[in-house]
Write a structure and sequence with these properties.
The chain crosses the membrane at residues 12-31, 37-61, 68-86. Its cofactor is Mg(2+); Mn(2+). This is Endonuclease/exonuclease/phosphatase family protein. This protein has 335 residues and is of the alpha+beta class. The protein has two domains: 2-82, no CATH class; 88-332, 4-Layer Sandwich (Deoxyribonuclease I, Chain A), CATH 3.60.10. The chain has ten helices and 16 strands. A six-stranded mixed beta sheet has the order 4-5-3-2-16-15.
């Protein structure tokens, strides 16, 4: 009997733990995620915290215990107080004045250790041709691919002198100006381009925020404190980079798109800074979980498209051409 009581208490403690962690994420704006690394880190695990709470609700329900109210209450509150990570949208609107954009961290067109694809660069070229977006934003681009995208005569790339990983904006429409942020003390970077589309000009930001530099092998090779310290520094750099981009974007008179590899989820301070009052294409028109990056058994949505325009559709791909997955959205330019 005592063993049974201890087991029930342990389960209740675990239940309360995941409830508290999920509540912390729900109140992140009031707590101040940007001041505490561990709170920002929690944002990556929201789907798993939700799943754990659902399982506890089912457990207490089967036991016919009122403790189910604990997790049920936080799940209901979280659903209405926060943007959901799972969407049921599956609509695709079409307008005469439509623009499509695709963002993809291509990992320098070199493939990834999980995928045995010797011709991955050709596969990426074929994939882009098949989707035929009007604008492509590549993170971790490669100069050797410059002649491979004949359908995109207009290009703006990270300047070679920057020392950063290469970002690229490829466009079917004329690029009339552009610039590079050249972040301090990092190889990550962001670029932007003003693109002329008929009588309008839009600004596109292609961002690759600070990377955590954590791979599956890091968990075995490195001391945990070193990993956490590096991630803490990465969150700080991401925040500064996001503020710089957002401040720059507010000074343009053109409507804009901000897309790329955020290296943070929608529950992060970094995302909130960049999003502001813009629309997230996945939250508007996505379906499912929208995950774009897999880390062992965990998946995250860190490749994001934000827009000032009305969003007609959003699509996630399972292309397996890089460690990231491509994302594409279409917009109504007149709304």
């Amino acid at each position: 009997m005592k063993r049974f009581v201890k087991k029930r208490k342990l389960i209740l403690v675990l239940n309360l733990s995941v409830v508290i962690l999920l509540l912390i994420v729900c109140f992140r704006e009031y707590i101040g995620f940007n001041r505490y690394f561990i709170l920002s880190f929690l944002g990556f695990f929201v789907p798993y915290l939700v799943l754990a709470n659902v399982l506890f609700v089912l457990y207490w329900m089967l036991k016919r215990k009122r403790q189910l109210i604990i997790s049920l209450a936080v799940l209901i509150y979280g659903y209405f107080a926060n943007d959901t990570f799972f969407k049921f949208n599956n609509s695709e609107n079409y307008t005469k004045h439509e623009l499509s954009i695709l963002t993809f961290n291509a990992h320098t067109f070199a493939g990834f250790y999980k995928f045995d694809k010797p011709n991955v660069s050709e596969d990426i070229v074929d994939f882009i041709a098949g989707q035929n977006p009007d604008i492509v934003c590549f993170q971790e681009y490669s100069f050797k691919m410059n002649n491979r995208f004949a359908d995109y005569p207009y290009k703006y790339l990270t300047p070679e002198s920057s020392g950063s990983t290469l970002q690229a904006i490829l466009s079917k429409y004329p690029i009339i100006s552009g610039g590079s942020f050249n972040f301090d003390e990092t190889i990550n970077n962001a670029i932007y381009a003003d693109i002329k589309i008929q009588n309008d000009t839009i600004r596109v930001y292609n961002v690759h925020l600070e990377s955590f530099k954590v791979r599956p092998g890091s968990l075995k090779r490195e001391v945990p404190t070193n990993i956490f310290n590096r991630m803490d520094l990465a969150f700080q750099k991401q925040t500064e980079q996001a503020k710089l981009i957002k401040k720059h974007s507010l000074n343009t008179k053109h409507k804009k798109l901000i897309c790329g590899d955020f290296n943070s989820t929608q529950y992060s301070n970094v995302y909130n800074i960049l999003k502001g009052d813009m629309k997230d294409s996945f939250l508007e028109e996505g379906i499912g979980f929208g995950n774009t990056f897999n880390f062992r058994i965990l998946s995250f949505r860190i490749d994001i498209i934000l827009s000032d325009f009305k969003i007609n559709s959003h699509k996630n791909f399972e292309a397996e051409l890089s460690d990231h997955e491509p994302v594409m959205a279409k917009f109504d330019l007149h709304n």
